[in-house]
Amino acid sequence: MALTVSNGTEAVKKAKSWLGTPYCWGGGHSGSVPVGTCVDCSGLVNQVYGTTGNTFTQVQMGAPVASIREAGPGDLVFFGPLAPGEPHHVGIYVGNNQMIDAPHTGTTVRRDSVSGFGTINAIRRLVPPGAGNGGDGTAAGPVFNYAQLEGIWIQAGGNAQAASMAAAIAMAESGGNANASNTNTNGSIDRGLWQINSTNGTMSSFDVMTNARAAVRMSNQGQTWRPWCTAYSDGACGSKGGVYLGPGAPYQKFLKQGVPPDMSVPINATNAAANQPSVQEASLDSALFGTDGPILCILKGPEHCFNAGASEGDKLIANSIKAIVHMVLNPIIQPIAGVMGITAGAVLMLGGSWILVSGTRAGQGVAGTGKTAARIFFPQLGIGMGATERTAYRTQQTAQMRIAGRERLSAQEATQREQAAGVAYERRMEAMSTQQLLDLQAMAYKEWLMRTRPPRGGGGGPTPRQGPQPRAIRAKTGPARGRTRLT
Description:
By secondary structure, the protein is α+β, with helices and mostly antiparallel strands. Among the domains are: 8-125, endopeptidase domain like (from Nostoc punctiforme) (endopeptidase fold (from Nostoc punctiforme), Alpha-Beta Complex); 146-276, Lysozyme (Orthogonal Bundle), CATH 1.10.530; 291-349, no CATH class. The protein has twelve helices and eleven strands. The strands form three sheets. It has a six-stranded antiparallel β-sheet with strand order 1-6-2-3-4-5. The protein has a three-stranded antiparallel β-sheet with strand order 7-8-9. A two-stranded antiparallel sheet has the order 10-11. Helix 1 packs across helix 2 (41-49) and helix 4 (146-155) packs across helix 5 (163-174).
């Protein structure tokens, strides 16, 4: 059987060209088909290697590999028995616990972690690995589990509520391998737990905390995961028609809720022993908002905050902070420290002098004079008073406070009475104003009457107003006697 690739690196590169291709059961088993034609897991192997058959025959090809630690790019990783001697799934290993596979119906060819499909049944090597072990030529590194990835995210300053999603993305991207690496078709390289692309400069680092801080920054504290292709249903950042956070997205296989984060994981995998914090440092870190807090950087030194030495970018940041401390903070801190030192020295000198002279006659005289002055000018301190004097003074002060309180109350009552009297006066003035208005109206009416009536004694002038007329006098005859009665 003639294979169509000569080494594992070439096989991985060819498998990447199939990313985003839809899955269909039985696809890829009828000879070579164009890239993009639907395939199943063993069909993908057939298209990459030019083989025929399914997992039952493929698991018998090539040479066995003892464990995943010894696997290299291009090796075939088989999972669990579907039937005796027949694995149910196969993927093409790319390194760093990652593989390219076609998982199941409803998904696409994508990059997955080897830890998401159960027990590894077998590993077979059809061609030499090529560019070494560890995927794209990088060596295997420390592997973190889900809880540890949550803890790393939080220690890097990430939102604790987004820790589960962050851990799932990291597992889907790198399988938890801190040294995971992937070379893209455009020549850029994805590095570390969250596969930070090299176009992001110094943030693309294998250093655990540098990589985690980059993920926190790029995801805006876990609010968006669009920069990661494993957040799309096609595993290819939507380039194959996938939906962001859609069903079948690779991260969903690893997403777990309610897993408590493991905060004991060393924050720098490149020097784990040196980064194990003491109990006191751990408490201080928590009190000062995490290991990257600015206050902690000053107290412990920038090298503890930025893992100086892990990358050139970290060294630059650490040295910049040191320069700022020396140029800006030192000129401010030194005068303050000098004044505090002089003050403390003066207090100590005065205290020592007092101890020396307090036992002498002169010292006792000075002390007596000081107490007398204190009693005169600061009696409220009670310096130099006996218990009886202090009680009498306090009683006097209490009585004076009560008198002052009564005086304040009397003043308030007087003010209230004055205000009430003012209101009553305003009301009286208002009533007087109303009466005056009525009087003026009455006077005006009288004046009008005088103008319209003629003066007594006749004369010219306007026609007098006619008053009521008297009733006419009629003569009535009494019914009985015929007498006349005036009415």
